[in-house]
Amino acid sequence: MDFEYRYSEEQEQFRSEVSAWLDANLPEGLAGAAGAAMLDSPGWEQCQNFRRRLGEKGWLALNIDLALVFLEELGKRKLGWLLDDGSSAIQTALQRWGTENQKKSYLPLIADGEANVWRFLAEPGVRLDVGSLGIRASREGDEIILNGQDTFAGQGLWPDYLWTIAVINPDFPPHRATSSFLVPSGLNGISIQSPRALVPGQTHRVTFDHVVVYPDALLGDEGSGWSIMQTALQSPQTIQYPIAEDAEVGDLLQYAKDTVRDGASLGKDLVLQQLLVEAHINSRITRLFKMRNAWLASTGQKITYELAQTALWEKQISMRLSRIVRDVMGMYALLDPQDPRAAVKGKLEFQQRSSLAIQNPSAVPEPYAVAIADALGLGKGQQGGQKIASPGAPTGASGSGDV
Q: In this structure, which of 148, 248, 252, 346 has its CB flanked by the most CB atoms within 10 Å?
């Protein structure tokens, strides 16, 4: 059975244009970067400038078919992380639930690469636990006051806007308890810390201390915040499209081919061959899962357990790949880019840390496993004696917000 995607003539023409432009314009400092988290301040500024150039060409707001080609070309150059900034989700939310003024104010900035938006850290498809949300909103006349602290995901050293979920109706049912806000990061009372972590710079602790916002910061209807974010995260525009090759697996295969030990290439070792084949097969399975998800989204079919299944699989094979990398490379797998002895410019040391960072750190059951069970009708709907509701899509929404 042939699962390979067939490209249209328009896609192939666009590929030629993108490939030629990237070859001529890709900054040298970005070509060897393993991800946004590895960039220093000058590197991040270079990244932002390059994103603005992509925005000027209209490549940050492509339709689904062309976005797939663009992402593949970035992936070939090991720059798939460049667009992993969550902007597609906030664009979707603004297009579907934003006011006309919000659309005019924010959509051009995001499409042009001029606005860096961090969002409240929520994974698509997981249950809502109102008690775990750290930010509260209250009304004082025409003003809305935000207080509390929570974790946000985003690239870069500082955001321009914070896509925030806050509990505004704590006594209401979960699907009516939260609201969504797009908050300028420069308001008084906002402070940001990026805690020490295995992969620094990917998550941030944001504190709101009596931060005053006005109703024009509210995104969508009051009480529908979680539903809006969940639906946006599962829209066709935000589905992760498969790249042609897995950069980390490709680096490992090339290392095994080029490295000679005891007079023979590592790739000739029968045991290591089996491990390398396993890593390759796992990456191909990931590609098939993502192709299926993209197909479901692009054809308007309901997505239930599929996103959670893919995310859980990626967690599991990331840990397996980290073990295979160590088996093949030995201690060289743990040398970072600053060490002159580091292989593959230290990129696989980053893989070692990131594979741990994405695992479930809490004492509660793996949320993706719970989401899969819920979608298949196997979930209990109870945790710690308290029902945890998963809200449906807000009024006027299409797609599934309750997986």
A: 252
